[in-house]
Amino acid sequence: MKIAVLPGDGIGSEIIAQALAVLKRLELPLELETAAVGGAGYDASGDPLPEATLKLAREADAILFGAVGGWKYDELPRAKRPEQAILGLRKHLSLFANLRPAQVYAELAGASALRAEVVAGLDILIIRELTGDIYFGQPRGIHKLPDGQREGFDTMRYTESEIRRIAHVGYQAARKRGRKLCSVDKANVLETSQLWRDVVTEVGKEYSDVELSHMYVDNCAMQLVRTPKQFDVIVTGNMFGDILSDEASMLTGSIGMLPSASLDAKNKGLYEPIHGSAPDIAGKDIANPLATILSAAMMLRYSLNQVAAADRIESAVKKVLQDGYRTADIAEAGARKVGTKEMGEAVVACL
Ligand code: IPM
Ligand code: MG
């Protein structure tokens, strides 16, 4: 099994190192190959997604991705910015289904920004469409109007087939869980969302065992902090999913805990923590590596069919939390505070 390892920028290499230590401990027949991506790709070859990196990603059975971005790249033209690497990988590899689970570990209920009883036992799965919507819709740009001022514009678009395939992912995931699917849109205002709602409803005829509901995105943003446990699986478009998944991460205590999978139609996938490159804490050995370690577990589960190994990693993460290990982002007073490396070592020790 060949894994493309793309650490990227900022804390990327620190958190990936811990995920690799965990994978190594499992002694699976994995062939790991590392390549530069994001700002690191730009520094190495003038391109955030170098040709060789894309080739490696195409050839691999799965991709383990750290994070991209950094202040020094913020002024570059958009095509050269680190974010283009992750957007390019998603698009080139047709990774249209983004799975972002948000689970509250019992030990961390107190670390949530919400009261513990609101989030205790929370287990939701956000499924975000990842290759369409206003992220990729054409035309887009900044042009000059006849009156001399500039106007910026982007285009939100979804085809029926794009909606249908992500709806199937949503229903099938719901079927394996609590059988509840909430489709999130803005159909009271947007045509794209009206089509989204119609198609998700149509596809639902094939899944009479799954209870479908629809919710406007603004209401969903509110419900997520009001009564988050009402949700099982949420399916939504690229833009709304980007925003809601960051919001949902805070229910769990820290964005540093949340893994994600981005899958194509054959379950080949890219796995990454949902947090970013956090340049402000890079190189300080304080970032939480658990989201990346849990992303490696998702990789074993979804793309490599190593379910037992994935279970082992997830149990080990639970155990280190039970044992009181906490990185700074999840540390309450009196906790056993550890750095990135020590947290990774604790997981390895549990394995
Ligand atoms: C995410 C990130 C990306 C996105 C950025 C880095 C392009 O926020 O994966 O959620 O907007 O999709
Ligand atoms: Mg985001």
Structure description:
The chain is of the alpha/beta class and 351 residues long. The protein folds into two domains: 1-101 and 258-351, Isopropylmalate Dehydrogenase (3-Layer(aba) Sandwich), CATH 3.40.718.10; 113-252, 3-Layer(aba) Sandwich (Isopropylmalate Dehydrogenase). The chain contains twelve helices and 14 strands. The protein has helices at residues 12-25, 39-45, 51-59, 83-92, 116-119, 160-175, 191-204, 217-226, 238-251, 290-302, 307-322, 340-350; strands at residues 2-8, 31-34, 62-67, 97-103, 123-129, 141-144, 150-153, 180-185, 211-216, 233-236, 259-263, 269-273, 325-326, 336-337. A ten-stranded mixed β-sheet has the order 2-1-3-12-11-4-5-10-8-9, sandwiched between helices. Helix 1 packs parallel to helix 12. 3-isopropylmalic acid binds next to helix 4. Magnesium ion binds at residues 242, 246.
Share of residues in strands:
15-25%
Please provide the count of β strands: 14
Distance between the termini: 21 Å
Indicate the low-confidence ranges by residue numbers.
none
Tally of helical runs: 12
- Say which molecules are bound, naming each kind only once: 3-isopropylmalic acid, magnesium ion
Alpha-beta classification: alpha/beta
What is the general shape? globular
Q: State the fourth-level CATH superfamily of the largest domain.
A: Isopropylmalate Dehydrogenase
CATH class of the largest domain: Alpha Beta
Q: Strand order within the widest sheet?
A: 2-1-3-12-11-4-5-10-8-9
